[in-house]
Amino acid sequence: MNRWMTVLVAMPLAAPAIHAQESVRIRPSESRAQLKLEEVLSIGSLSGEHDAFGRVTGIAVDSRGRILVADERAHHFKVFGPSGAYLATVGRRGEGPGEFGAPSGIVVTPGDSVFVLDTDRSLISVFSPDHDWVRDVRISPSWQINSMIPRPDGTVVLASFARGDRFPVKVLGTDSEIERRAGIPIDPPDLYGFEASLLGGRLAQTGSGYVHTTKSPYMLTFLDEQLNTVRVCNGPRELTTDPADVVFADDRGAEIRWGDYVHSIAILPLHEDRFLVAFIDPGDDWTRLHVVNEQCELVSELEVDVVLLPKVVQGDLVAAVRSTDYHEVVIFRVTMEG
Q: Among residues 277, 315, 317, which one has the least CA distance to residue 296?
């Protein structure tokens, strides 16, 4: 099944007041390009034996092209071949080594080790390239971890947030202790305990460090290898929803109206120091994609009339979760013309 989706949207630009080493407004590039997605593979069905997913929370691709899919509701991750053929199921519900409560993220290192975030058990489980359990790394149960990047020295760089927190990027040491906090400090209003869910953001590697995007407002923070802030790119604030506008409280308690929360959901590295940033509107079921470079230039943009959650890039291919009546894993070839 192949689908081509090309809708260009023009938007005004404005910059929030943020103090950093270099703070720049995201501006349209002089050489604009047309972003296209060509679907080359989909995995998922309503009732298949191996591809009826409960809730896909993570996708990773290893050096052999195998596709690893974390399923929160099924308490495991599945492995598929490059053509989509089912290969294996790893893990089950439980409290023992290699078992899961709720796997909510999955990452493959350059050496094909597998890191699986388990929010229910407050740990990161590490597996060998052959998917044998190796060890667990404990994490704070208060953290909302959205991204994790394992490093060769055994530490893990996290995009995470918690109530009472200020810094959205952290380095987790091999002893499960925080070694470094970084990123632009966040001083939120009272969000009635929902700070971890509504704030923080996503993280990706660059050629010389990392880039972090907040859920709201639209802001990219470039960090060097030591996690010092190098540059902040400020996008249009009206593109995302103020988190305080989706939290409602009365004498019965507080709730989030997720359907009203337009926010950034992903940042992935592309070629030539370009990054794919994704925003979703869960209420109206659309996804907006921006391609932004390290100079804070908007190179291309695309709107898709479905909720599409990009998870990982390999070459010119992007693996994403497509959310309709059920969850699908879809692989797109990304091209930019012009």
A: 277
Residues 6+ apart with CB under 8 A from 211: 203, 204, 205, 220, 221, 222, 223, 267, 275
**Which pair of structure tokens corresponds to residue 241?**
């929803």
Q: What is the pLDDT of residue 201?
A: 95
Rounded-to-integer distance, Cα 75 and Cα 105, Å: 12
**What is the pLDDT at residue 15?**
35
Q: Which two tokens stand for residue 257?
A: 């109206």
Cα separation of 202 and 205, whole Å? 11
For the chain, the average pLDDT equals 91
Give the mean pLDDT of 238-261: 94
DSSP string, 93-149: BSSSTT-BS-EEEEEE-TT--EEEEETTTTEEEEE-TT--EEEEEE--TT-EEEEEE
Give the range among 9-13, 137-141, 193-197 with minimum mean pLDDT.
9-13
Confidence at residue 87, expressed as pLDDT on a 0 to 100 scale? 98
Question: For residue 100, what are the contacts with CB-CB under 8 A and spacing of at least 6?
Answer: 75, 76, 91, 92, 93, 94, 116, 118, 120, 121, 125
Q: Are 274 and 292 in contact (CB under 8 A)?
A: yes
pTM over 0.85: yes
List the beta bridge partners of residue 68: 60, 79
Helices (H), the chain: 195-198
Q: How far apart are CA 164 and CA 190, in angstroms?
A: 10
CB atoms within 10 A of CB 49: 7
- Cβ atoms < 10 Å from Cβ of 264: 24
